[in-house]
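Quick one: C-alpha coordinates for this chain, please?
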Amino acid sequence: MKNTRSISYIRKKYYQFDKNSEKLIYKYVCHKHLSRAERKKLSDDNMFETYGQWKSHVCKKYNDFTDEKLNEFSRFLNQTIRNAGSECAYWKLIIPVILTLWTDKLFKSLYSVVNIKVDSSVQLIIEMIVIIVMVLFGGYLVIEIIDPIRNVSFERDFFIDYKEIIDEMLKKREG
Protein backbone atom coordinates (compact mmCIF):
# COMPACT_ATOMS: atom_id res chain seq x y z
CA MET A 1 0.00 0.00 0.00
CA LYS A 2 2.84 2.39 0.85
CA ASN A 3 4.48 1.81 -2.52
CA THR A 4 1.37 2.93 -4.44
CA ARG A 5 1.67 6.41 -2.91
CA SER A 6 5.33 6.93 -3.72
CA ILE A 7 6.30 9.45 -6.37
CA SER A 8 8.39 6.95 -8.33
CA TYR A 9 5.45 4.51 -8.44
CA ILE A 10 3.08 7.22 -9.70
CA ARG A 11 5.67 8.41 -12.22
CA LYS A 12 6.06 4.96 -13.74
CA LYS A 13 2.52 3.60 -13.37
CA TYR A 14 0.41 6.55 -14.49
CA TYR A 15 2.75 8.57 -16.68
CA GLN A 16 5.24 5.98 -18.02
CA PHE A 17 7.94 8.37 -16.89
CA ASP A 18 11.22 6.75 -15.86
CA LYS A 19 13.07 9.68 -14.33
CA ASN A 20 16.49 8.07 -14.41
CA SER A 21 16.46 7.05 -18.06
CA GLU A 22 14.84 10.31 -19.21
CA LYS A 23 17.38 12.31 -17.20
CA LEU A 24 20.21 10.38 -18.87
CA ILE A 25 18.82 11.27 -22.28
CA TYR A 26 18.54 14.91 -21.23
CA LYS A 27 22.07 14.82 -19.84
CA TYR A 28 23.31 13.59 -23.21
CA VAL A 29 21.37 16.31 -25.05
CA CYS A 30 22.84 18.97 -22.74
CA HIS A 31 26.35 17.61 -23.37
CA LYS A 32 26.95 16.91 -19.68
CA HIS A 33 29.59 14.39 -18.66
CA LEU A 34 28.31 10.81 -18.70
CA SER A 35 30.12 8.01 -16.93
CA ARG A 36 30.76 4.78 -18.84
CA ALA A 37 27.94 3.05 -16.98
CA GLU A 38 25.54 5.87 -17.89
CA ARG A 39 26.65 5.80 -21.53
CA LYS A 40 26.02 2.03 -21.67
CA LYS A 41 22.45 2.54 -20.43
CA LEU A 42 21.68 4.88 -23.35
CA SER A 43 20.56 3.24 -26.56
CA ASP A 44 21.58 4.72 -29.90
CA ASP A 45 17.94 5.69 -30.49
CA ASN A 46 18.06 7.98 -27.45
CA MET A 47 21.30 9.79 -28.21
CA PHE A 48 19.88 13.05 -29.50
CA GLU A 49 22.19 15.80 -30.64
CA THR A 50 19.69 18.66 -30.53
CA TYR A 51 16.97 19.89 -28.27
CA GLY A 52 14.49 19.58 -31.15
CA GLN A 53 15.21 15.87 -31.54
CA TRP A 54 14.72 15.33 -27.82
CA LYS A 55 11.53 17.39 -27.88
CA SER A 56 10.07 15.26 -30.68
CA HIS A 57 11.01 12.13 -28.69
CA VAL A 58 9.03 13.42 -25.69
CA CYS A 59 6.08 14.48 -27.88
CA LYS A 60 5.99 11.07 -29.57
CA LYS A 61 6.07 9.34 -26.20
CA TYR A 62 3.06 11.26 -24.83
CA ASN A 63 1.11 11.73 -28.04
CA ASP A 64 -1.43 9.05 -27.12
CA PHE A 65 -2.23 10.59 -23.72
CA THR A 66 -5.59 12.27 -23.37
CA ASP A 67 -5.73 16.00 -22.68
CA GLU A 68 -6.80 15.29 -19.12
CA LYS A 69 -3.93 12.89 -18.51
CA LEU A 70 -1.43 15.31 -20.07
CA ASN A 71 -2.77 18.08 -17.85
CA GLU A 72 -2.37 15.85 -14.78
CA PHE A 73 1.18 15.00 -15.87
CA SER A 74 1.94 18.71 -16.25
CA ARG A 75 0.67 19.30 -12.70
CA PHE A 76 2.75 16.38 -11.48
CA LEU A 77 5.87 17.86 -13.12
CA ASN A 78 5.02 21.23 -11.57
CA GLN A 79 4.99 19.67 -8.09
CA THR A 80 8.29 17.92 -8.82
CA ILE A 81 9.81 21.28 -9.82
CA ARG A 82 8.63 22.79 -6.53
CA ASN A 83 10.16 19.90 -4.59
CA ALA A 84 13.48 20.31 -6.41
CA GLY A 85 13.40 24.06 -5.69
CA SER A 86 13.01 23.52 -1.97
CA GLU A 87 15.86 21.01 -1.96
CA CYS A 88 18.05 23.52 -3.79
CA ALA A 89 17.19 26.19 -1.21
CA TYR A 90 18.14 23.77 1.57
CA TRP A 91 21.55 23.11 0.02
CA LYS A 92 22.13 26.82 -0.55
CA LEU A 93 21.59 27.40 3.17
CA ILE A 94 23.64 24.52 4.51
CA ILE A 95 26.66 24.63 2.18
CA PRO A 96 27.93 28.08 3.23
CA VAL A 97 27.84 26.96 6.85
CA ILE A 98 29.79 23.79 6.06
CA LEU A 99 32.31 25.70 3.95
CA THR A 100 32.80 28.33 6.65
CA LEU A 101 33.43 25.75 9.36
CA TRP A 102 35.71 23.73 7.15
CA THR A 103 37.69 26.78 5.93
CA ASP A 104 38.23 27.88 9.53
CA LYS A 105 39.66 24.45 10.42
CA LEU A 106 41.84 24.45 7.30
CA PHE A 107 43.36 27.85 8.06
CA LYS A 108 44.01 26.90 11.68
CA SER A 109 45.76 23.74 10.51
CA LEU A 110 47.77 25.61 7.90
CA TYR A 111 48.73 28.24 10.48
CA SER A 112 50.00 25.57 12.87
CA VAL A 113 52.00 23.89 10.07
CA VAL A 114 53.53 27.19 8.93
CA ASN A 115 54.56 28.10 12.50
CA ILE A 116 56.71 25.00 12.89
CA LYS A 117 60.40 25.96 13.14
CA VAL A 118 62.30 24.87 10.09
CA ASP A 119 65.82 23.72 10.98
CA SER A 120 66.73 22.06 7.68
CA SER A 121 65.80 22.03 4.03
CA VAL A 122 64.25 18.55 4.45
CA GLN A 123 61.81 19.93 7.03
CA LEU A 124 61.01 22.80 4.68
CA ILE A 125 60.24 20.37 1.84
CA ILE A 126 58.09 18.22 4.12
CA GLU A 127 56.22 21.31 5.33
CA MET A 128 55.60 22.44 1.74
CA ILE A 129 54.33 18.97 0.79
CA VAL A 130 51.96 18.96 3.78
CA ILE A 131 50.65 22.41 2.82
CA ILE A 132 50.13 21.36 -0.82
CA VAL A 133 48.33 18.16 0.21
CA MET A 134 46.09 20.08 2.61
CA VAL A 135 45.18 22.66 -0.06
CA LEU A 136 44.49 19.95 -2.68
CA PHE A 137 42.37 18.00 -0.22
CA GLY A 138 40.55 21.22 0.64
CA GLY A 139 39.81 21.89 -3.02
CA TYR A 140 38.48 18.37 -3.43
CA LEU A 141 36.21 18.80 -0.41
CA VAL A 142 34.87 22.11 -1.73
CA ILE A 143 33.97 20.44 -5.04
CA GLU A 144 32.28 17.55 -3.22
CA ILE A 145 30.34 19.93 -0.98
CA ILE A 146 29.13 22.12 -3.86
CA ASP A 147 28.24 19.17 -6.13
CA PRO A 148 24.74 18.60 -4.66
CA ILE A 149 23.67 22.11 -5.69
CA ARG A 150 24.73 21.45 -9.27
CA ASN A 151 22.86 18.12 -9.32
CA VAL A 152 19.68 19.59 -7.88
CA SER A 153 19.82 22.53 -10.29
CA PHE A 154 20.29 20.20 -13.26
CA GLU A 155 17.37 18.03 -12.17
CA ARG A 156 15.17 21.08 -11.73
CA ASP A 157 16.10 22.35 -15.21
CA PHE A 158 15.29 18.91 -16.61
CA PHE A 159 11.80 18.95 -15.10
CA ILE A 160 11.19 22.55 -16.24
CA ASP A 161 12.10 21.66 -19.84
CA TYR A 162 10.00 18.51 -19.74
CA LYS A 163 7.00 20.43 -18.38
CA GLU A 164 7.46 23.09 -21.05
CA ILE A 165 7.17 20.43 -23.77
CA ILE A 166 4.06 18.88 -22.19
CA ASP A 167 2.45 22.33 -21.84
CA GLU A 168 3.20 23.09 -25.52
CA MET A 169 1.52 19.82 -26.48
CA LEU A 170 -1.56 20.85 -24.51
CA LYS A 171 -1.64 24.30 -26.16
CA LYS A 172 -1.40 22.77 -29.65
CA ARG A 173 -4.31 20.46 -28.88
CA GLU A 174 -6.44 23.35 -27.61
CA GLY A 175 -5.67 25.56 -30.60
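Residues 80-175 form one domain.
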